[in-house]
Prior knowledge:
Blueprint: H1 2-5, H2 16-36, H3 48-55, H4 60-76, H5 84-124, E1 130-132, E2 138-141, H6 143-149, H7 166-171, E3 181-189, E4 195-203
Antiparallel strand pairs: 1-2, 3-4
Amino acid sequence: MESLWRLERVWDERNRMPVLLVSGAIVLAIALVDWWTKPYVSLGFLYLFPIMLAAGFLPLWVVAVLGLACAVLSEVFSSLDRSFIRLSFETLALAGCGLFVAELVRNRRLSLAAQERLRVLVETSPAAIVTVDERGFINLANRAAADLMSPRDGHLVGHPIAAFLPELHHALRWEEGPQFRTSMQCRGHRGNGESILADVWFSTYKEGPLQN
């Protein structure tokens, strides 16, 4: 999965037109080569690649139609006798792969949009807010939180929450218990060593990479 998201920039909305044009050109190129090599070998499986590229920008029904069209092209230029069964399986394979990629890209975009909304909410809040991952490291913090905890380098992200609120670090070990929401009063430490007493409201959750 990680290797797939290294290529997520391909499906950036700004690349919509270039990617669709390239996908169309690849389909035409495969069809021409498949026609030219018809007596020797079938290249129908190569249609998977342009379908996967285009799937990130097309409605699901268009992806399904594109899979059917490429399956028909593959069958037309095949040196084998026409077979409805083979055409059906090719359509299922091509369209299914495209629909799978389309759903992955859609879910990724929804996840990124949710993370962006969370980031904006945190950064614009006058209250001190941090989010902490399952290892106990801060991965999002606003200016109010940085002013409260006064890290030496001026940035909270990347630091362990235990360095500032050790009691909170132990409370957030959600893998050993159920998810919950609660509040507590705990003693903490600023980056300069000064002790503070903080009222903390927090919740744990297991959906996504972040933990509050």
